[in-house]
Amino acid sequence: MESDYNLGLQLMLVGMLSVFMILGIVVALGRTLIFFVNKYGAVPIHHQPIKRGIPKENIVVLSSVVDIVTQGQGVIKSIKKL
What we know:
The chain is mainly alpha-helical.
């Protein structure tokens, strides 16, 4: 009976180690592939970001909505365009 437990533990350890090793190889190959693709395959795109402000009409609308919803208690501190 004790030999069955030993065999079970051995099989479990061998299985876990083999899975760990295979996953380690997969991770290493993935990182290597990502490194080489980023280094040799990527084409850099250089462009200037377009800086556009938020139109004044939108700011007025947002201010009035905040004023109505908060009954005059709310204040807009910043507006960021997503």
